[in-house]
Amino acid sequence: MKKHNFSAGPCILPQTVFQEASKAVLNFNGIDLSILEISHRSKEFIAVMEEAQALALELLGLEGKGYKALFLQGGASMQFLNVAYNLLENKAAYLNTGTWAAKALKEAKFFGEVTEVASSADANFNYIPKGYVVPEDADYFHCTSNNTIFGTQMKSFPETAVPMVADMSSDIFSRSIDFSKFSLIYAGAQKNMGPAGTVLVVIKEDILGKVSRPIPSMIDYRQHISKESMFNTPPVFSVYVSMLTMRWLKTLGGIKTIEEHNNRKAEIIYNEIDRNPLFKGFAEKEDRSVMNATFNLTDEGLKPVFDEMAKEAGLNGINGHRSVGGYRASMYNAMETESVQVLADVMRELENKA
Ligand SMILES: *Cc1c(COP(=O)(O)O)cnc(C)c1O
User: Fold this and answer.
1) Nearest CA to ligand 1 atom 12
2) pTM
3) How far apart are the CA of 305 and the centre of ligand 1, in A?
4) Which protein residue has the closest C-alpha to ligand 1 atom 3?
5) Residues labelled as active-site residues
6) Residue ranges covered by each domain of the chain
7) Quick one: which H or E segment has residue 16?
8) Helix (H) or strand (E) holding 276
9) Which class in CATH covers the domain with range 254-353?
10) Whose C-alpha lies nearest to ligand 1, atom 2?
């Protein structure tokens, strides 16, 4: 029996996507060739890339609004660097909400002055800072919409006079946001979109071309845009599987539908965390992530018992990140409500047993 997979990333994808992708490895679209052996310049693969780009913009409600979607390599981590390389002329503003946000900030420092507008480091990143001011002379403002490790999520975004850039790796396509507030969005595929190997970058074209430094081709967004995300061989399988996941999401009803589903799952787990005296949530309630729920045992001595019960129930990947400890239940789009209910039931059983 398939396990209930709460892994933070790489992580769960729809079962139907796994099935279709595995068929395509043997015989893609009935052409008697594998998706892995055809040219990325073949009409079959170009159709995949075009559909992936169109679906990304459509799901985000950004078609016809001056945005381009790219599928690049190097993961979200490469974008920490690329964003600054392409956009930072004098000064950039960063919101520090945890490990990934801090890594993005660190890379930007190679290219200019970086202002940290606020940080929640004082409480091990268990909340999202509010009421900060984004300087109007910054080239852009960068934030991390969902903090995968700490289980916090930005519920609102500031009104900024400067372009807003967001790392949405772990909550892309999971909730309705006015995405047109952002000038650049990036997301490593392996959290909510596809297998590892590609990163989605959605850029408003008019923010490019404003820095004076020369930009090497592979880093220059304009190069990738002019080559329709085919400047070099793209990660064909990751793009293909991401496209299948986006198709799945569209058929389901898009972001609005999945958002309701995701909220239901989060409610089940957080209700149990708050009800059960053996557990306490890590993140401040108002900033709790709908994607990654972080929680600890009130009595660490119960860990071996709980871990054994979780294993028995087929729960996979619930151990917390080393910087938080405890547990983390990642409940990405493809996770069924039933799996979350199984986890909540095991937590309740522990209470009955202890
Ligand atoms: C996982 C993650 C990253 C790192 O992604 P890579 O593709 O491994 O570079 C960056 N940001 C966030 C928010 C993440 O969850």
Assistant:
1) 169
2) 0.98
3) 32
4) 76
5) 100, 167, 191
6) 15-252, 254-353
7) helix 15-26
8) none
9) alpha beta
10) 169
CA-based torsion, 153, 157, 162, 165: positive or negative:
positive
How far is CA 317 from each of CA 6, 163, 188, rounded to the nearest angstrom? 5, 36, 19
Cβ neighbour number for residue 130 with a 10 Å cutoff: 13
CA-nearest of 182, 199, 181 to 190 is: 199
**pLDDT, tens digit, 9 for 90 and up, residues 123-141:** 999 999 999 999 999 999 9
Pick the CATH number of 15-252 from 3.40.640.10, 3.40.50.150, 3.90.550.10, 3.20.20.120: 3.40.640.10
What is the SS3 assignment for 133? coil
Distances (CA, A) of 63 to 57, 60, 177, 191, 227: 5, 8, 15, 23, 19
Beta-bridge partners for 96: 119
**Per-residue pLDDT reduced to its tens digit, 181-214:** 999 999 999 999 999 999 999 999 999 999 999 9
Do 119 and 96 meet the contact criterion of CB atoms below 8 Å apart? yes
Atom of ligand 1 nearest to the CA of 196: 7
